[in-house]
Amino acid sequence: MAIAILLCGLIAGVSIYYLQVYYFYEEVVPTGTDDVMLTTLDGARTAIPYADFQGIDADSSPIRYRACFTTTLTPAEAAETYKPYEGAEPRNAPGWFDCFDAEAIGDAIEAGTARVFTGHRNMEFGIDRVVAITDDGRGYVWHEINDCGDKAYDGTPLGDDCPDRDSFEKDQ
User: Fold this and answer.
1) Which of 24, 67, 112, 126 could form an SS bridge with 58, CB 3.0 to 4.6 Å?
2) How do residues 104-158 score in pLDDT, each as one tens digit?
3) How many whole angstroms separate alpha carbon 156 and alpha carbon 59?
4) Strand, helix or coil at 82?
5) Exposure string (b/e) for 19-31, b if CB count within 10 Å is 16 or more?
6) Nearest in space to 148 (alpha carbons), one of 157, 136, 137
């Protein structure tokens, strides 16, 4: 009986681990045109030059998107044209997606060798796509929960600066 309980626990643990780390993720196949886009200072979204794109996503959560790429655009050049994104913190990616090291990206942002820009504000209600570009030509993309998303998920009143959630969901 004890062995059966331990075996069931082991099978459940391995299954949950596999589902969380591998099963739900799918490779994002680059289209070659709009995979990496930034929002200009006047609010338009434009594609930036990139190569070596690798990306993963999952339908199980709006914040599971991660991507890596290389670019000829420098952070200084991007800052002249594109909206910065304040307070971004890269989220951990699965260990097997080794081009995205959230801790190293966070350290680069903190050290000033990477800058974060707005990719797409409210691409889904309360979720922004952000793009970090490093001094050495690497780039990273992930999703952030914005202030409206934080308020919506914790039950705080949204306020005037958030889009109307009902009309937003109908438009999507």
Assistant:
1) 24
2) 999 999 999 999 999 998 888 888 999 999 999 999 999 998 877 777 776 776 7
3) 26
4) strand
5) eeeeebbeebebe
6) 157
3-class secondary-structure state, position 87: coil
Q: Token pair of 167, please? A: 């009309």
pLDDT by residue (tens digit) across 40-79?
A: 999 999 999 999 999 998 887 788 899 999 999 999 999 9
Measured CA to CA, the distance from residue 12 to residue 16 in angstroms comes to 6
Reduced to 3 states (helix: H, G, I; strand: E, B; else coil), residue 117 is strand
Cα angle: 29, vertex 145, 90; to 5 degrees: 65
* Burial of 158 per CB tally in 10 Å (0-12, 13-18, 19+): middle
Among residues 8, 73, 61, the alpha carbon closest in space to that of 36 is found at: 73
Q: Which residue has the tokens 């794109």?
A: 53
Report residue 84 as tokens. Answer: 């910065």
